[in-house]
């Protein structure tokens, strides 16, 4: 396995890196979809993110890595936690899991199945957790998400919606937590994403090939340096990585105290009305995302500027698709932002009319 | 081996000595082979770094010779694995080793081809038939340097780094291998034209390659060369940045082969020629315009002011914010010579057919081509998509699901052993345990719109057809349907949108549709039949939707004349009927024009098509009509 390229050494692609960092700060924003051309560093960025994530405390021996501070009793099949008093529970720190869901994965490995080895050698009926178990409290990454087979997509949709996995097969009846942040990437030229799947992503960003020569030269230079000597390259970027990780950790601690002024709430609602996005989900994601961004900026409260910056990634994929409308959804969001928040220079003052 | 990067020049004197006209061709062939041999050596030096090569050639002694050479360059002991187009996923990625598992009584892993190729090369035959999904598995493995196996109850990771040789046997107008795959291969090579009795020598010895491989990690490339390669890529309007990355690796491999630790200009030129030129999407602008072009890679439509300052280096950097820009500019100005030579070299090496298309302003097909959601089956034995398993006997086309069979047998092992009916220690499987995979047969449909783009109503009709295409695509994902669009006008019919299920692609292809001119209905129907038959060969079900008033006035030969045109149209319609293609004829003529109506009816009848008068055919009505005629999934 090749070492992963450092996140902080990625050149450009601001929207993508920002979306990933936001998801790292607040998993509740609900996943990131990255669509773009070939060779734009989509999967490089996601794999790089894994190294930035801070560690979490997990229950010793729990296949789902559950949080010992929450609840009591086993979180799922095979979890060793007792009911009642939790003081005896052993725990340790572990990196947040970033689990790869490779193409060609089979159903039994996604949801888990009868442990074949134990069944064959000992005749025991035991549950072997799958990828959805491993991804609990972490990230599940699907490269080429638009090429994933339909029956696997169904399994993911189910788990992503309920936050738990239910396995009923081979006489097993197992239910366990699988709360994860879904990260998908793909090239839209190779096929579209199923609408239900699209809906599961909180944020979506589009990445393009950098056009400026200076940028491309820098990309090539860094990549060349990295491939020549990964260790040295990682060393050189170690400080930057540390700083970025510290920023994420700080933001995670700070996010609870970030204020969301009424004006921002009103504008967020107005923006969603303007765009006609269905339901409350867009609005909620919009608020959560801008709060996470404010936390990353170490700002005390969300501003209209934060709202403006996150609106495209939170809303663009939620617009009802009108195949007859030529305008891309990004442009439509841009227009709505201008209408609601005023042109880019400054947020429109006042006008917090009660809309939502 | 000093001739590494300018080998064609050393061949020149020989050929010139012969000084005969026929030797020009021989010389050209020698140059092609020199590149081919160079590519083999470069790949052998750095297979994983360079990704590999796309070889366009039918099976032939020359192709055979090249593959032998490749093998020779790799040296002994390095894997050289073949991936047939029919290789099932389990063989590609690995999975449960049935024999060993039954023998041992516990799960045993079999490595897949991708893992077995570690350190060597993988040869994909008939790569043009490779499914997008298969290509994605290969490219994921190449990107990550490892195969991740999550199959058959197994979780394993195998490190593997290999080069890929994609053998492309496509016809000239057929799509080649999946674009995502080609994007990761440094080189592209056409062996057609070479003769097996030509002298086809190796340029290097396997030992030289091995030495270069040792040297490679220490080879460095200077910034000016990197910049020149990036600028050349920009001048050729190459999109994916992998092009430059691969060119850098190729330059390093070339330096290593030549025994140096520093990339020189010849290495960089060679890299530009072999890696960049076949990716060109536009011809470099004439020198005085280059400045503008480089900053906006696709030919800029509006800005051609201030381009005639002769002293401006063509590569004036667009980073005004840097105080040391002056020194940069000096460096770059020194470097401008190399860059010009590089652009020239790359341009000179653009393959002829690509060049013709670029001149015609059509862009590279390789660049426009997308995977078009190829739904070719990965393996012949796999029909439809697996939807689970059920108890049953394999055979008669039913496939045993090994892992599920073992799972169902597992709980009974202690009991069966206790009963002692079988002497051996392995797993005891009974007929009851057999599980077979259920497949859902897809009724995959390709809707082919044939749009009359002639006359005054053309624009409206095209817009509606386009709308219908997009509406169908917008919700066809689940059914994996595809849509194609043929337009006819003037004296020809064009396949404007080859079958696809990518709405992104459709949007782009349909953004500018021309209209007006005569009505060559016969040609339109012929073109549609061609597409329909192609789809049949891909195992899909075509449905042809014609949007026209039936008023043909251009015949098959492209000549004007209503009588002949009508006769030809009827003939083409009959051919469609004879081929048994399901068709729908949407009559777009206005209600009052009875003549048109009669004509349309007549053609529709000849086609055996359903006749649907929709004078104001709007996109939604059209898509609804088509959808009503395409069947839903059927269990198979």
From TrEMBL, chain A:
<dbReference type="InterPro" id="IPR003593">
    <property type="entry name" value="AAA+_ATPase"/>
</dbReference>
<dbReference type="Pfam" id="PF17863">
    <property type="entry name" value="AAA_lid_2"/>
</dbReference>
<dbReference type="InterPro" id="IPR000523">
    <property type="entry name" value="Mg_chelatse_chII-like_cat_dom"/>
</dbReference>
<comment type="similarity">
    <text>Belongs to the Mg-chelatase subunits D/I family.</text>
</comment>
<dbReference type="InterPro" id="IPR027417">
    <property type="entry name" value="P-loop_NTPase"/>
</dbReference>
<dbReference type="Pfam" id="PF01078">
    <property type="entry name" value="Mg_chelatase"/>
</dbReference>
<feature type="compositionally biased region" description="Basic and acidic residues">
    <location>
        <begin position="80"/>
        <end position="91"/>
    </location>
</feature>
<dbReference type="GO" id="GO:0016851">
    <property type="term" value="F:magnesium chelatase activity"/>
</dbReference>
<dbReference type="GO" id="GO:0015979">
    <property type="term" value="P:photosynthesis"/>
</dbReference>
<dbReference type="InterPro" id="IPR041628">
    <property type="entry name" value="ChlI/MoxR_AAA_lid"/>
</dbReference>
<feature type="region of interest" description="Disordered">
    <location>
        <begin position="72"/>
        <end position="91"/>
    </location>
</feature>
<dbReference type="InterPro" id="IPR045006">
    <property type="entry name" value="CHLI-like"/>
</dbReference>
<comment type="pathway">
    <text>Porphyrin-containing compound metabolism; bacteriochlorophyll biosynthesis.</text>
</comment>
<dbReference type="GO" id="GO:0030494">
    <property type="term" value="P:bacteriochlorophyll biosynthetic process"/>
</dbReference>
<keyword id="KW-0149">Chlorophyll biosynthesis</keyword>
<keyword id="KW-0436">Ligase</keyword>
<comment type="function">
    <text>Involved in bacteriochlorophyll biosynthesis; introduces a magnesium ion into protoporphyrin IX to yield Mg-protoporphyrin IX.</text>
</comment>
<dbReference type="GO" id="GO:0005524">
    <property type="term" value="F:ATP binding"/>
</dbReference>
<dbReference type="InterPro" id="IPR011775">
    <property type="entry name" value="Mg_chelatase_ATPase-isu"/>
</dbReference>
<keyword id="KW-0602">Photosynthesis</keyword>
<protein>
    <recommendedName>
        <fullName>Mg-protoporphyrin IX chelatase</fullName>
        <ecNumber>6.6.1.1</ecNumber>
    </recommendedName>
</protein>
<keyword id="KW-0067">ATP-binding</keyword>
Automatic annotation (TrEMBL), chain B:
<protein>
    <submittedName>
        <fullName>Protoporphyrin IX magnesium-chelatase</fullName>
    </submittedName>
</protein>
<dbReference type="InterPro" id="IPR002035">
    <property type="entry name" value="VWF_A"/>
</dbReference>
<comment type="similarity">
    <text>Belongs to the Mg-chelatase subunits D/I family.</text>
</comment>
<dbReference type="Pfam" id="PF17863">
    <property type="entry name" value="AAA_lid_2"/>
</dbReference>
<feature type="region of interest" description="Disordered">
    <location>
        <begin position="363"/>
        <end position="398"/>
    </location>
</feature>
<dbReference type="InterPro" id="IPR041702">
    <property type="entry name" value="BchD/ChlD_VWA"/>
</dbReference>
<dbReference type="InterPro" id="IPR041628">
    <property type="entry name" value="ChlI/MoxR_AAA_lid"/>
</dbReference>
<feature type="region of interest" description="Disordered">
    <location>
        <begin position="282"/>
        <end position="333"/>
    </location>
</feature>
<feature type="compositionally biased region" description="Basic residues">
    <location>
        <begin position="371"/>
        <end position="385"/>
    </location>
</feature>
<dbReference type="InterPro" id="IPR036465">
    <property type="entry name" value="vWFA_dom_sf"/>
</dbReference>
<feature type="domain" description="VWFA">
    <location>
        <begin position="446"/>
        <end position="630"/>
    </location>
</feature>
<dbReference type="InterPro" id="IPR027417">
    <property type="entry name" value="P-loop_NTPase"/>
</dbReference>
<dbReference type="Pfam" id="PF13519">
    <property type="entry name" value="VWA_2"/>
</dbReference>
<feature type="compositionally biased region" description="Acidic residues">
    <location>
        <begin position="290"/>
        <end position="333"/>
    </location>
</feature>
